[in-house]
Amino acid sequence: MTKNYYLIKKTALEARKLIVSCISDAGSGHPGGSLSMVEILGCLFHNHIKYDPKKPYWNKRDKLILSKGHGSPGLFSYLAIMGYFKTSQLHTFRKFGSILQGHPDLKCPGVEFCGGSLGIGLSFSIGDALAAKIDNSDRHIYTIIGDGESNEGQIWEAAMTATKYQIDNITVILDRNYVQQDSQTEDVMPLDIHSKNNNKTYTVSDKWRSFGWNVIDIDGHKIEQIDKAIKESKKTKNAPTIIIAHTIKGKGIKHMEQNPNWHGQAPKHEFLPIISTELESQFMISPSIIAGSSIDLEHKIKACKDAKADCIHLDVMDGIFVKNKTFDFKKIKELRKITTLPFDVHLMISNPLTHMKKYIDAGSDIISVHAESCNESSFGEIHDILINNNVGIGLAINPDTQLPKWSYKFLPTINQLVIMSVFPGKSGQKYIESTHSKTQKIIKLLSKHKFGGYIEADGGICNANLRQCFIDGARVFVGGNAIMGQTSVKNAILEFKNIIFNTIQNLLLSKANSIGGKDLVTKWINLHNEEKTTLLNNIATDLRYL
Fold first, then answer.
1. Which of 62, 161, 388, 530 is at a distance of 20 to 30 A from 442, taking alpha carbons?
2. What are the residue ranges of helices labelled H in 143-203?
3. Sign of CA dihedral 465, 466, 470, 475
4. Which of 193, 204, 201, 187 lies closest to 150 in space, CA to CA?
5. Band of the pLDDT at 533, cuts 50, 70, 90?
6. Do the beta carbons of residue 419 and residue 474 sit within 8 Å?
7. pTM of model > 0.85
8. 258 Cβ contact partners less than 8 Å away, ≥ 6 residues apart
9. Rounded Cα distance, 544 and 125, in Å
10. Hey, how many other C-beta atoms are within 10 angstroms of the C-beta on 27?
11. Which DSSP category does 150 fall into?
């Protein structure tokens, strides 16, 4: 289980919007490397760093050192979100007299290191870590370095020093996005080396291991992997740890992703509404593993992991709330041992309040209960228990149920609203078409009550209705037979993603057309690389924009 999984997802979206906005306001800055480390910062601030924004110099705090200082918009955005200063202050980024400059400065509360010249932050961090050991402090040092920055020789001098002194109170995270200021890192100065002598490739992970470091390789955008790696790093004794976080530069904005041109370029104001729409279009695929012919749930989870599913949907049925019966918290606890993928647990049970602690302890990342099995009082208790245990809060409604008025007060803190498009309790049902209009009406209602979570579409979701479900406003898609019932889970998930990707392109072109007509549509298309420009031109032609 990853604590605060859905909270981190929510603040990651907020941080990306703030990054793009403040750089655009300033007319300069570095969006690419700021966007690539957002999930890393979210995990650190929400789950690991000891800090107090009201007492930024609290002597028992942990320290976060941003060695790749040009990523300051990312750091500043999280400092604002966590309460060090108001988010409105981000509009002063790079302005004369502002505490928020192009690189971190100690004038800004929460900043621990003036990150200007690259390569220095790791040496500084080792000094801090040694000082903490001398003082018998339990302070932990977290340091984020860049892969372009790793061209600097001082990085490797520091690496040797940390090993010599067995510095185990430091966790270094390498933002391995493969792009630096001028080009791809492997074209400028490769970190992964292919030896013609023995025809082997030695990765940057191999380099760090050869320096005596504990090395953990992860996907730097998977919250569950980041969280697990940081936990492991803090358990390691007598050796420093580096987490090689494989990331995408410019993550979340397609024309910026892996594009060296966006290392240090500010997006124009006219594109901000389109970019905001694109960021809000991020989605998750959550396969339901009770679907399909096989009963081997462990094998199904492995297939979902290999297919790069975002989470696992676990339908719990008790034979009382619905006629069928599946499994309970005991099976979830068994499954939890074999994967870090988030568990999206859907409780189709009666009296869910009495079982809540068991499902939390089993390792659920979000738990959705049915409005039909609760009232305001019992859901209020469930809501508070989940918040206190850092587990996501979900509420589900059946096809013939409207969102109850008692739920309105909880909407600002509910992480997920599950709108059922089949009646729960039996797989293989067809999607109820009236769910489209129901979802659209509910979303209008949610906006009035400050709902900031996800809409999950659950029941009969398939290639034929996926596009419309996305247009309706759903952002989490439960795939039953359409994914788990297919010969290749990987291909089925890829088809889901491709349908949604093309739907997003339509949505963004529509947005551009609505605010700037043909000229803005053309400008937006021209931001993309040749392959994507061809695709977007085809879509735009189909939509008669050009």
1. 388
2. 153-164, 185-188
3. positive
4. 204
5. confident
6. yes
7. yes
8. 177, 178, 179, 248, 249, 250
9. 56
10. 11
11. G
